[in-house]
Amino acid sequence: MAQFVLVVDDDERFRDLARRLLESCGYAPGGDAGNVAEALRCAAAARPDIALVDIGLPDSDGLELSRQLTEAPYWVRVVLISADSDATSAEEAAAAGADGFIPKSELSCSTLRSILGDG
Prior knowledge:
This protein is of the alpha/beta class. It has helices at residues 12-24, 36-46, 62-70, 90-95, 109-116; strands spanning 4-8, 28-33, 50-54, 56-57, 60-61, 77-82, 100-103.
């Protein structure tokens, strides 16, 4: 059964690209959002298995969103992403409840699966 993925990024073009990549990897679209407020509403309604979250968001940041999603009453795994490969450390990502961090330039099926332990 495919895992549902919520894509959170303020760049609509990147969200579309990420959705297509995720579908090619066997994941199912679980919604998308351009900011933290939308992401929280979408996650509460859709209950995604995974959230792919950009660190730089207009109304907060991905680290804070990761904390909120991983403390929600439903279980969501979070993978942080950023165009800046030095945006966060593995320790900061883990402290925010995220499973890991992937620079956007390295986002692929294999990097996502290696973080999520799917392959």
